User: Fold these one by one.
Assistant:
Number 1:
Amino acid sequence: MIDMNENRPFCPECEHDVVPAEALDRRDFMRTIGQTTSLLAVGAAGTSLARADETPARPNNAPRAKPAEALIQELYGSMSDEQKRTLVLPWNDRARKRMFNSAINQRIGQAYTRPQQELVERILRSISAGDAGFRQMTRGGTFDGSGSFQNCGANIFGDPTNGQRYAWVFSGHHLTVRCDGNSEPNAAFGGPIYYGHSPDGYSPRNIFYYQTRNVLNVFDALTEAQRRQAVVVGNPGEHEPSVQFRAEGQAHPGIAASELTADQRRLIETVMRDILSPFRRADADEVMDIVRRNGGVERIHLAFYQDRRVRDQNRWHFWRLEGPGFVWNYRVLPHVHTYVNIAARERRPAPAQG
């Protein structure tokens, strides 16, 4: 069993009491999976994704939905100079890569006209995997503690016109997601993202419950020796520090997919499908391409964190997928906070011989 520095989990913006974990019934789990996930399949090698139809069939005469990138340009073009002074920030502003628990500055309902608000909602829908993904992104339309779409924020960093670098950032309670038209080279989602939901992460009321349940299925399938590798005492922390990549050659906590049997690896592939299921196919495919370039799913480690300073009867307070250029840090209790950072690692050339 690996030991880690024990840093107490914290949630400075949203303190909630721990809700007792509800009974974990496999039939209930399967019902929840069917209701909350879109269909993704990770290839046997873990390097490609194939998604079933994400939205209902489009009538022949219906206009094709614009991609998020085109909608961002349209939003930018509709903004007044006064709006741009507040809502458009420099590309190199430090806030561009940060994760937020509320609007960065002005709320959507205060800052945008009604037509612009509709554009912002269309952008958010465009980076979601159909209706199911949008339902998860919005936490069933509640936007969690934000209470409504209008209470969230949407900002542009840089300039989305004429091939310049830009990033659109949507932020609210337990949510920071991005779209940057690949302005940030080799970075999935345009940089770190954050998502969560206020109910206890072991509860079927949590909209991301299915993700933890499938991770626990992996643990159930491990041998005792494998579990000793997978369990970490402590917690991995939260916010930006929790998703920093380890130095090249530094060990990752937990058990690597390469050390699992074929059946166990298929369970890991199911987890990879689940965590990517809320996001549009283009972003999910980019994630898997980066995983492939960084060495494949075989190099991804799964770790379960026992936080001994939290006094409850639940075994896991965090679970974490981590590998080269890949961090998916998921806090289960007292409610779900998930911090994600994925980027292609640069390969340093070997030193010259002689």
Number 2:
Amino acid sequence: MIKKLLHTRYRVTDLEKTVAFYRDVLGLEEVRRHTSGRGSQLVFLKAPQSEEEIELCKFDESGPVKVGPDLTHLAFEVDDIEAFAKETAAKGYPLSDGPHPNGKGGAIAFIDAPEGYEVELIQRGRDR
């Protein structure tokens, strides 16, 4: 029986650039890194108030990474989407879509991570 979600894996080509995005732009914490038995380079990150981790994997033997549009995304809660957008734009990562108010005092927006993965940003409204 499944107990809980532990992590989600995204395979990438440029591991260090992607780690820097999640760590330095989004503010995630690098929890650990190692090389797997088959040779995959793995880095695990997590958001400050989350238990679940993101596993970034570099494994060149699998061929090039091709991320199609609207294939998958991660969603993170932010306190102030406008302030977050200004901060990430100053770091070279402007919003790719939004912000879009949701009618409840909150909003959603998107930012593109390296290699084409999309990240959703959610500002909760007063009426959760």
Number 3:
Amino acid sequence: MLRKISLLLRYIRYTYRAVNAHSIHSPFVFDLYTRCIKSKTDESASGILRDLIVKMQSDKRTLSVTDYGTAEGETVSRKLSVQYIARNYSSSKFKAGLLCRLSSYFKPAAVLELGTSLGVGTTALALGFPQAKIITLEGCPETASIAKENFIFNGLKNVEIITGEFSSSLHGALEKLPSVDLVYIDGNHRSEPTLDYFNECLAKANENAVFIFDDIHWSADMETAWNKIKQHNSVTVTVDVFTIGLVFLKKGIARQQFTLKP
């Protein structure tokens, strides 16, 4: 209950700062906002994502879930149904649609995702730009197996899933890619690991890369990570839409931070 109240307070604080298109003076961010964030998801992709979410929220299979990314920094193993994971931890219809649009908008050749879960977010990224090469990392083998089923069911042939703790799998995943165009970090909801993943991925990120951070307001600790990322020397533009944060490394444009209504 206390966590929910804290999250509500952070959301109220966010709404006071959030603006719409009329307050955006950056041509780059204005175009991103009007043509991507506020646009509609492709109807075919939206239908696939909607059906996948419904399917997962109805799946009563029980998994032995290993979670390396708890707020307390502990590794936790527990029995959870696919249905429970889908309803409490997996990408919502709104977030999946936004990920799909971001992938379609930026057309990334190489995508790295940290935190596959049931594969809803991965599917959204793949549908947004089917030509992308996507490597996705998942710590829990049983959760990864469900994601693989979903990739096969939806005919996704551009996704490679690597199972294992990120501290050991991230380096190998980066070695497979000459550079990264889009990085989606949704695998550990603590400040220190989030910053570590960001810094490690920066070495392979090109100038036009976009970093997507999930649940930036999930806790005070995650907000600390988000604030440190915004101040990083390599970062020029950030966009906060509450559920996710976007980070850009573009050179030659003014350093700006935006809090936008989704």
